[in-house]
């Protein structure tokens, strides 16, 4: 049995998993990331990998963006200030002696859903996660589409609403500022409501609160418009939605699909198929292992 390691580095925690060639997670370890000292975190990763006690064929790793995926460099992640312009791939390979592939988390989740999840067997799969933020990944023939410079599918800042809401460094009216869980909650609280997460805003809307209903309506309307646009541009066989907003708010995906069908050419309505992700929170780790095994296969050819 061959093994790869999937790693997810976040601003708070790092997860490391031992995954076999059947994409089964055999072991996993989580520890706190050091936001100021990447080498310390990489040494901890190496200790975990040694503790697995298996021969590792390759490592796939995701980190917060923005990333230079072509050269394996972390650029300027806001939650990892000490990691800016850090040559992650080079340094982790030096420490572990194992080949390393860097990718963003949404691309890896999309890859996992394409290979063994909801998009298995499909040629072109578009993945979108609606959670704290909005992330996307496109897989064609089971491979991640990165674009010319490695920034394909960086959709969070796509502008849909002139002078619309904004958050963080995002521009006004960006899709993440409208439809993400963070945005929905922020807009509700800014309007004087009390909500801890997007599900509570949805519940207030169900109870007849007009402000909450308007915020949810904006999320449905602009997200479905965005997805309809992606159908016009990409023509995917399947659209996979993930993230806490998409998966935990009742009827969310069905509502988005219904509205997206109304926004494409009538002849294309039957092409719009939006389904929930199948792999849950482990999809990024599994996608990282996919990347490592794919790289191994490529080197054999």
From TrEMBL:
It comes from the Bacteria. One of its GO terms (molecular function) is glucokinase activity. The keyword Zinc does not apply. Keywords: Kinase, Transferase. Pfam families: ROK. It is an enzyme of class 2 (transferase). The keyword Transferase applies. Coiled coil: none annotated. Its EC number is 2.7.1.2. PANTHER family: BIFUNCTIONAL UDP-N-ACETYLGLUCOSAMINE 2-EPIMERASE_N-ACETYLMANNOSAMINE KINASE, ROK (REPRESSOR, ORF, KINASE) FAMILY. Belongs to the ROK (NagC/XylR) family. This is Glucokinase. It comes from Anaerostipes hadrus.
